[in-house]
Automatic annotation (TrEMBL):
<keyword id="KW-0808">Transferase</keyword>
<dbReference type="InterPro" id="IPR011009">
    <property type="entry name" value="Kinase-like_dom_sf"/>
</dbReference>
<feature type="binding site">
    <location>
        <position position="114"/>
    </location>
    <ligand>
        <name>ATP</name>
    </ligand>
</feature>
<dbReference type="GO" id="GO:0004674">
    <property type="term" value="F:protein serine/threonine kinase activity"/>
</dbReference>
<dbReference type="InterPro" id="IPR000719">
    <property type="entry name" value="Prot_kinase_dom"/>
</dbReference>
<dbReference type="InterPro" id="IPR008271">
    <property type="entry name" value="Ser/Thr_kinase_AS"/>
</dbReference>
<dbReference type="GO" id="GO:0090404">
    <property type="term" value="C:pollen tube tip"/>
</dbReference>
<keyword id="KW-0449">Lipoprotein</keyword>
<feature type="compositionally biased region" description="Polar residues">
    <location>
        <begin position="27"/>
        <end position="38"/>
    </location>
</feature>
<keyword id="KW-1003">Cell membrane</keyword>
<keyword id="KW-0418">Kinase</keyword>
<comment type="similarity">
    <text>Belongs to the protein kinase superfamily. Ser/Thr protein kinase family.</text>
</comment>
<dbReference type="GO" id="GO:0010183">
    <property type="term" value="P:pollen tube guidance"/>
</dbReference>
<feature type="domain" description="Protein kinase">
    <location>
        <begin position="85"/>
        <end position="362"/>
    </location>
</feature>
<feature type="region of interest" description="Disordered">
    <location>
        <begin position="17"/>
        <end position="47"/>
    </location>
</feature>
<dbReference type="GO" id="GO:0005886">
    <property type="term" value="C:plasma membrane"/>
</dbReference>
<keyword id="KW-0067">ATP-binding</keyword>
Length: 455
């Protein structure tokens, strides 16, 4: 499924289409500037990107001192790498455009080359967002951007090649001779993808809202290691005392959070909803939207929600392609997490840090179908962020992954996760207090140093 506006928004942002003169095309090569200047607030930095054809976009980016690391390619280099975009190198199609496999002549590195469809839904703005985001944000669960090409009217992105394709390729429309993903691999992919979101939400400053989390945007490397890709729709999250970002509604139908689709108000909890939909895809093997199914089953969330209320129906939610090879208790726990993420009310959804903790546990409980370990035991774990910091750390919530039938139900686990809704506010206030204290100490030490120097 490609990216498109889920609903029209009266306050939608308009992409400016720039007319490129023939002179500009002939004599100039647009580049992305990395001129970073300090904002008056001192909290972030502003990056102004200008091309010589008049395109200008301003983005807030993390103030960690990093510089744009992406390499600039000439168009002829990528033509050579892909054998002139030969059909044999074609990998697939997305909202951005066509993707080709290539080999860089200078280094021999195998890469994926995405070429912007100039008639497509994403344009220069999304191109710049992707370059800037992936140049400054690095994590093992984010795809690595090697470089870009902005040669004349050509817009291309060059990524590391992910040999196993997308998660969507391994879940849906499988050929008869292709084996589906096993339970352990599904949990590993879910946990890794959640860690990518956690980095964007909790480690990036200001937080980054991915806005287009879906199975086709999760790419898989060796060993089914997942990485998030396609950052063209990413937005910087709210800062200060703001609770949300207002923006035009963009994303993919079936994955958009209801409050975002209806109001255009975007928060990190919007991404958590989309994650819940993808996690349901992993559990059930169904598409987010499947028009070939009966009317009441076409939208995955609407079909699954009633089944969450009856424990006796939980087994109906398991992907038939698993052929029963999964631990029953872990299935219930996974459904609990999915149920929490797709809550109608954004405030009742968990933070992604809590989701990571729960899924990391599930991913580490390897299931051996040969030992018939269905319904295996569990233990009590406490959610926390081992690396410290971030709005998702230190919640102290407990997941009873052994417990009773009542404790295993999605509704009960959702209640446990949502009982501390005011925690985010408390964490933010504590963070501000700590920063203020450190600043006072710094000023005091600086004053002491200056007085001793003059003495």
């Amino acid at each position: 499924m490609g990216c498109f506006s889920c609903f029209d928004s009266s306050e939608g942002e308009k992409l400016n289409r720039v007319e490129e003169s023939s002179k500009a095309q002939k004599h100039s090569q647009p580049t992305v500037s990395n001129n970073i200047s300090k904002l008056p607030s001192g909290g972030e930095k502003q990056l102004t990107s200008k091309s010589k054809v008049g395109l200008k976009t301003e983005l807030l980016l993390p103030s960690d001192g990093q510089q744009i690391s992406a390499h600039t390619f000439a168009f002829r280099d990528l033509v050579a790498a892909t054998m002139n975009f030969h059909p044999d190198t074609f990998l697939g199609e997305g909202g951005f455009g066509s993707v080709y496999k290539g080999r860089l002549e200078t280094t021999g590195q195998v890469v994926a080359v995405k070429q912007l469809d100039r008639d497509g839904l994403q344009g220069n703005r999304e191109f710049l967002v992707e370059v800037l985001m992936l140049s400054l944000l690095h994590h093992p669960n984010l795809v690595n951007l090697i470089g870009y090409c902005a040669d004349g009217d050509q817009r291309l992105l060059v990524y590391e090649f992910m040999p196993l394709g997308s998660l969507e390729d391994h879940l849906h429309d499988l050929p008869p001779d292709k084996e589906g993903l096993d339970w352990n691999t599904r949990m590993k992919i879910a946990a890794g993808a959640a860690r990518g979101l956690e980095f964007l939400h909790d480690k990036a400053n200001p937080p980054v809202i991915y806005r287009d989390f879906k199975s086709s945007n999760i790419l898989l490397g060796e060993g089914f290691h997942p990485k998030l890709s396609d950052f063209g729709l990413a937005k910087l999250g709210p800062t200060g005392d703001k609770s949300h970002v207002s923006t035009r509604v963009m994303g993919t139908y079936g994955y958009c959070a209801p409050e975002y689709a209806m109001t255009g108000q975007l928060t990190v909890k919007s991404d958590v909803y989309s994650f819940g939909v993808v996690f349901l895809e992993l559990i059930t093997g169904r598409k987010a939207i499947d028009t070939e199914l009966p009317h009441g089953e076409q939208k995955l969330v609407a079909w699954a929600r009633p089944l969450f209320n009856d424990r006796r129906k939980f087994m109906k939610l398991a992907d038939p392609k698993l052929k029963g090879r999964f631990p029953t208790r872990a299935l219930y726990q996974a459904l609990s997490v999915a149920s929490m993420c797709i809550q109608e009310e954004a405030a009742t959804r968990p933070l992604i840090g809590d989701v990571v903790t729960a899924l990391s546990y599930l991913a580490n409980q390897a299931y051996d179908p040969n030992k018939n370990e269905r319904g295996g035991g569990g233990r009590l774990i406490t959610t926390r962020n081992d690396e410290g910091g971030g709005s998702g750390s230190g919640s102290g919530r407990k997941f009873d992954v052994e417990g009773s039938e009542k404790d295993d139900s999605p509704r009960e686990t959702a209640r446990m996760l949502s009982r501390d809704i005011d925690r985010e506010r408390a964490v933010a206030e504590a963070k501000m207090w700590g920063e203020s204290l450190r600043e006072k100490r710094r000023q005091s030490e600086q004053g002491t140093s200056e007085s001793s120097g003059t003495g």
